[in-house]
Amino acid sequence: MPNTTQLTDTLSSYLKPEDIVQVEEAFRVAETAHHGQMRKSGEAYISHPLAVATILAEWRLDAQAIMAALLHDVVEDTPTTSQEISEKFGKQVADLVDGVSKLDKIEFQSEAHAQAENFRKMLLAMARDVRVIIIKLADRLHNMRTLESMQAAKQQRISHETLEIYAPIANRLGLNNVYRELEDLAFRFAHPNRYTVLSKAVKAARGNRREVVSKVLEAIELKLANCHIEATVTGREKHLYSIYRKMQEKNLAFSEVFDIYGFRVTVKDVQNCYLALGSLHSLYKPIPGKFKDYIAIPKANGYQSLHTTLFGPFGTPIEIQIRSQEMHQIAEAGVASHWLYKSGESGISEMQQKTHQWLQSLLEIQNESRDAAEFLEHIKVDLFPDEVYVFTPKGKIMALPRGATAVDFAYAVHTDVGNRAVAVKINHEHAPLRTELNNGDHVEIITASHANPNPAWLNYVATGKARSHIRHFLKTLHYEESVALGGRLLEQALRALKVDPASIGAGPWEKLLRENAGKTKDEILADIGLGKRLNIVVARQLVSLGDVSSAEQRPQGAITIRGTEGMAVQFASCCRPIPGDPILGFINKGKGLIIHTHDCPTIAHYRSDPDKWVDVEWDPDTRKLFDVSIKLVVANQRGVLAKVAATIADADSNIDNVSMEEEDGSAYTTMYFTLQVENRMHLARVMRGLRQIAEVVRISRMKG
Known about the structure:
Elements: H1 5-12, H2 17-33, H3 47-58, H4 63-70, H5 74-77, H6 82-89, H7 91-105, H8 113-126, H9 130-145, H10 152-172, H11 176-190, H12 192-226, E1 232-237, H13 240-250, E2 261-267, H14 270-283, E3 292-293, E4 306-311, E5 317-324, H15 325-333, H16 337-340, H17 350-355, H18 372-377, E6 387-391, E7 397-401, H19 406-413, H20 415-419, E8 421-426, E9 429-431, E10 443-447, H21 464-496, H22 506-515, H23 521-529, H24 535-544, E11 559-561, E12 569-571, E13 583-588, E14 592-597, E15 613-614, E16 616-618, E17 626-635, H25 640-650, E18 654-660, E19 668-677, H26 680-691, E20 696-701
Parallel strand pairs: 2-5, 11-16, 12-14
Antiparallel strand pairs: 1-2, 3-4, 4-5, 6-7, 8-9, 8-10, 13-14, 13-15, 17-19, 17-20, 18-19
């Protein structure tokens, strides 16, 4: 049976006895769940979650995080459910376990720099509670400490992933000790030969330089004491991977890396940091350009210190960090320091606020007194508030702005994918194209060769790329449709002048284009289609510019409306004409041809301007559904809406929109429907069916 003494001893130094009882119960549940499971090393599997919990206890995390660490593999690897954990240990513990499980499912596939950066951001963004990331880092740390039992190929893969993903996250969160250990362990397995050679060289150098180090240490301590500055001075050795990285980046041999040794000076407050800096600069000369003030300008993760490099004895450069005790606490423990380091009961210190401004939720709790458990409630991670990270079907990660929809994703993949999108699967389930994406979503766009962008997409896309491509497509489409409509309107006007459109050759057109410098034939036709030019005016110009034959034998003819013309022909929303209605065409400048019903009250005041009206008629074979509005007055009884909807469906009509007047306590209510029908006969069939419902008192079609 694994030994829990170390965990219990550590926890008893800072947790309440009732919390320790809960942790012991979580251990029993985990041990039972993992019974019979073994690790690759041959140990009982429970030894792993126990080790992770012990690491977290050393970082003094709260009881919920310790319980989640003990249970972090039970949902994935055993029959225990998240619901059972929630009932036994509370929703927060279940949420932490669930968060760690989600991160475990994500596989890092590419070694490209941008992919690694996005992967790190996505891991951080997916973990809504910072403790999820800390548990994951402790889990990775223990796995790295026990990597010997894995096969060489797996050691390599896990080590590269640790160097690219997890060590930088530990650094981002300010967990310096974890960051250094992860890097050194990963270096050891990723480059075993280089690790062996370098560690031997460092050991040899340590012996050679011991005299220099002790001499410098004594000199620093003496100088600070003479200046009456209370300080703790320690010599520190750079960790192996940082030496290796320096050799790689600067192309140095090991003998050229001088700052293997550094010194840390810890004083009581900020003022003493600068006093210590001044006294050390008078002891050894500073190297120009090697001074950094991270107290005045802290690093992104809140790290604060003064860094300076000095010419030591025998001309050896020595690196010195000067920081206060509070800065040291935060530098070593990072995010975890929030609940293990409190400056009295007045709340969170100013230092800690500066440290974690990037943890957005701290802004609300500047001056309030909270215990550690309450504090945790407020540290939800939103490190990248403006971005979401999603997967393509091939596992590539894409960064999109917050609020981006499936349409934005489609255009981010490729313009053609956006233009041809008809549906989307999010996490393998069908969803509307307007669905907003969340971190970690797996998104697959379904396309069709006949599909075109929908103007309604412009209402909810979040990216400029999607918006500009949709507009460009619609503008091009509108232009092409306007050219076609303009051609039909011009033909109609020529026939009205008793001219055969086929007799208008290239000559009259060339003369007309010369008079309209810079215009093409298509542009003039598009202007007619958009109502910017009158068809009858252009027709007269063409007739006057050339020899044309008469078309007296041919009927004048109206423009036929099929309903599939696109944006160049629009159906007025005031009267919603449908095939079978007597109709008129009204040329609206810039919008093209608008079709109204003959008796639409909205157009009464336009009737006096005959130049704007066009004769139109329905094509006998329209293959499209048209919107029509109807109004029903019904008895206010339960189930009446369901009856109405069922009757409409039975008549092969679709409901596009429905609304009702607000309840006023009367026995009757008014319903408004927008239906899709093929023609007037179809609408009559729908209305006949609705009249047969006992609760329907009155029914009418709405116009104007």
